[in-house]
Design goal:
The complex is a heterodimer. In chain A, 17% of the residues lie in helices and 39% in strands. By secondary structure, chain A is an alpha+beta fold. In chain A, strands 4-3-2-1-5 form a 5-stranded antiparallel sheet. The relative contact order of chain A is 0.34. Chain B is 61% helix and 8% strand. In chain B, the strands form 2 sheets. A 7-stranded mixed sheet of chain B has the order 2-3-4-1-5-6-8, sandwiched between helices. A two-stranded antiparallel sheet of chain B has the order 7-9. Chain B is built from 30 helices and 10 strands. In chain B, a hairpin with a 2-residue loop joins strand 3 (38-46) and strand 4 (49-55). Classes of the chains: A alpha+beta, B alpha/beta. The A-B interface holds A 17, 20-31, 33-36, 41-49, 51, 55-62, 65 and B 60-61, 63, 65, 91-92, 94-95, 98, 239, 242-243, 246-247, 250, 273, 277, 281-284, 286-287, 376, 380-385, 387, 393, 483, 485-492. Strand 4 of chain A pairs antiparallel with strand 10 (488-491) of chain B, so a sheet runs across the interface.
Chain lengths: 76, 672
């Protein structure tokens, strides 16, 4: 499953990044690499973007981009 | 000799606070060569040692993907500062260390200033800076920029590093495969690298597949092929190679950061930021609160307070004009000197200076929103609306400000989003109807749409928005083609803004505006005054219709005939709108003077259709001089600003023509 399929409050571990170019570079630089634990905090009122928490900070990214990040769901 | 120091760090880690603390009043804001990114420099003196400290833009990484990162990397590589002060947020250690590791690879003397230690401690945490120092091999000093703690020690240590009194052995210890690949590439390129200690940095760059490095080092084909072969052994796929190196870096950082910041007990519940965000950007309350916050900001800036200050300043300038006018009258100076001083110098520049209170208030508010962390939330809330235009939520605020005044709105676009986004935003802001255009709508709507004035005026605002969207779409599919920069934005923790930081930011914006008002805007005003006050045979005149402006208006008038207002007075009024949009109505007052009131004159010279066309044209044509100067500054060239003005005038012409024709069908029966 991908990051965009998480429900608010759910967590997952990044398995693979299916994006390229500037987006890939940016996400890698922000700490989204294999093995990173991420939690979906909320979805913006207009439905996009998403807010996630990782490594003790909060990051927002768009649904379309989140759909390119494969994760493994961690059961609560 | 003067030493060079650079301050580098992530956004939102207290870098600006530290810079202000280090340099105090001795700082100046400029521009990085060729790009519209603020460059802040300041001076430090340590005994006899003179140091110039450059505040590099806040960045997360040295990958040259954004303008800011490119600027920072360029400075570090080309200027080779004598010391790098890397400010790191202790509350967000791992993410901040990513940049630290990249900086260490540059082989420059550096010190890590571990900031916000007090914040961690107030939450019950403990910070072991000595442990981090042992692991990194570079000095680590705990500081609190906000409270000024540890800053003196930092300055002294930076001074010693500048003079090479301290020997450093920064070690970036990658895993065996990564280290092996890097060493192999470093060995290959060693002869091409100007400084031996830079080998590690360039090797990492090549391993990541950065093409600029090969060009920079003038690697020949055979060397490049060998380096590529070595990289391929690390991982055959370029993308996976990038990931693998990033993984290695993050592993190293996790190991390095482990145990440096410790919380003896589990934190009780969510922190302040989490709790605030549950309200401020929640599904239910997010948008209403956003509207409320910006309504307050708008009311402060463009409402009673801003307007009162503006009126007071205008009164003061008027009295100054009266005083000097009296002096001139006593000395018997010729009429034109009187007019030059009063109309051009005091009136013209004064008219621009009158914007100052609103610019101050606006940047005061913006600075508070930015420093508190809310601005990122505003972008988060609004992003969806701008996606279709290829823009991000960060552009929303400058656009919103455009409804108040174009000039500060354009200035506010600085530093929001990337270059392309900023340029597009700056091009679209003038279509947001600024408050100075309101009197024009009020006048015409009062004459032609009696009883429906509010609908007519609202319609103008909506038309401006619609045109902005259409132009945005058009530009996105022509000049601004290609995928936008990814919208990946940190939502920083909420922090209380400091008064001194806010005031300083506001002051710097005002100085920038005043410098422009004193130079370009002043000379443009004198030119416009010359056009207004002299006849084509260069005789001084007080009759607008006899002036060069009047002649120009007459020449341009036929051009406006297809729009329904081909009379020279309308053309002259529009020309005077270039000084300030407020002048349009005032000019009509002068030109139609003595014809039984302005309202009567307007209904005599315009039809409902041509009146509507004139309103539309006023809404969309190029903004006033001070906005034009701000736009040319943000677009980086006069040519670009002139093209933008041409675009705006063409759009205005087309839309106005359409309004005249289409409006004619609906208003046909109502012709006076």
């Amino acid at each position: 499953m991908t990051l965009r399929e998480l429900r608010p409050g759910q967590s997952g571990v990044v398995v693979a990044m299916r994006c390229e170019g500037a987006l890939r570079r940016r996400l890698l630089d922000m700490g989204l690499t294999r093995g990173t634990l991420v939690r979906l905090l909320r979805i913006a009122p207009l439905g996009d973007p998403l807010e996630i928490a990782l490594m003790g900070y909060e990051l927002s990214l768009r649904r379309a981009d989140a759909g390119k990040i494969e994760i493994e769901l961690i059961s609560e | 000799m003067e030493k060079k120091a650079a301050l580098v760090g992530n956004p939102n880690c207290g870098k600006t606070t530290l810079f202000n603390l280090l340099t105090g009043q001795r700082q100046y804001v400029g521009n990085w060569a060729g790009v519209t990114v603020d460059k802040k420099e300041g001076r430090l003196s340590l005994g006899r040692l003179k140091v110039r400290l450059t505040d590099l833009p806040g960045i997360y990484s040295l990958s040259p993907y954004s303008l800011e990162e490119g600027v920072a990397l360029g400075f570090l590589l080309d200027e080779r500062p004598d010391v790098v002060i890397n400010i790191v947020d202790a509350g967000n250690l791992e993410r901040n260390l990513y940049l630290t590791v990249q900086l260490m690879e540059l082989g420059l003397p550096m010190v890590v200033a571990l900031n916000m230690v007090d914040e961690v401690e107030s939450r019950g945490g403990r910070v072991d800076h000595a442990l981090l120092q042992r692991r990194l091999g570079v000095p680590v000093l705990p500081i609190s920029a906000r409270r000024g703690e540890g800053v003196q020690e930092l300055v002294e240590l930076a001074g010693e590093l500048c003079q090479r009194k301290v020997r450093l052995l920064p070690r970036v210890r990658y895993d065996r495969e990564t280290a092996g690949a890097l060493e192999e590439i470093a060995g290959l390129i060693a002869r091409q690298v100007p400084e031996k200690r830079l080998c590690a940095f360039f090797a990492a760059r090549l391993l990541e597949g950065d093409t600029q490095t090969a060009a920079r080092l003038h690697l020949g084909d055979s060397l490049l092929a060998k380096a590529k072969a070595a990289a391929a052994r690390y991982h055959p796929e370029p993308q996976q190679r990038q990931s693998r190196l990033a993984d290695a870096r993050w592993r190293l950082i996790r190991a390095g950061a482990a145990g440096v910041v410790r919380y003896p007990r589990r934190e009780k519940g969510p922190g302040l930021t989490q709790r605030l965000d549950r309200i401020l950007i929640s599904r239910v309350w997010g948008l209403p609160l956003f509207l409320l916050i910006f309504f307050c900001m708008f009311s402060i800036t463009f409402g009673p307070l801003g307007n009162t200050l503006k009126t007071l300043l205008e009164g003061l300038i008027g009295r100054l004009g009266g005083f000097f006018g009296g002096l001139l009258a006593q000395s018997g100076a010729p009429d034109w000197t009187y007019s030059l001083l009063l109309d051009a110098v005091i009136g013209g520049v004064g008219g621009v200076l009158a914007f100052l209170p609103q610019i101050m208030l606006l940047f005061f508010c913006l600075s508070i929103l930015e420093d508190s962390g809310y601005m990122a939330r505003a972008a988060f809330l609004m992003d969806r609306l701008l996606q279709g235009l290829g823009l991000t939520g960060k552009c929303f605020i400058p656009m919103l400000m455009g409804f108040g005044c174009t000039t500060p709105a354009v200035m506010a676009a600085r530093g929001m989003g990337d270059e392309r986004e900023r340029r597009l935003t700056v091009l679209l802001i003038p279509f947001m109807s600024c408050s100075a255009r309101l009197p024009i709508y009020a006048l015409f709507a009062g004459v032609f749409f009696k009883g429906h004035e509010n609908v007519a005026v609202l319609g103008m605002y909506l038309l401006g928005l619609a045109v902005a969207v259409l132009c945005g779409l058009l530009l996105r599919h022509t000049l601004f083609r290609g995928p936008g920069r990814p919208f990946v934005m940190e939502l920083p923790p909420y922090r209380l803004p400091t008064l001194s930081g806010t005031l300083r930011h506001m002051w710097q914006k005002c100085v920038g505006f005043l410098t422009k008002a004193g130079t370009i805007i002043f000379s443009m005003n004198v030119v416009i005054w010359l056009l207004q006050s002299f006849t084509p045979s260069l005789q001084y005149t007080v009759q607008p219709e006899q002036s060069l402006f009047g002649a120009l208006g007459r020449a341009l008038a036929p051009l406006f005939a297809p729009l329904g207002f081909g009379e020279w007075q309308a053309a002259v009024a529009l020309l005077s709108g270039l000084i300030a949009k407020e002048s349009v109505v005032a000019t009509f007052g002068v030109l139609f003077g003595g014809q039984g009131g302005l309202t009567a004159a307007i209904s005599a010279h315009f039809t409902p259709q041509s009146g509507l066309a004139f309103m539309v044209f006023s809404l969309l044509y190029m903004p006033c001089i001070s906005a034009f100067v701000a736009i040319s500054r943000e677009l980086g060239s006069l040519r670009a600003a002139l093209s933008a003005a041409l675009l705006q005038c063409s759009v205005a012409y087309l839309a106005s023509f359409a309004a005249y024709r289409v409006g004619g069908m609906f208003l046909g029966g109502a012709v006076c």
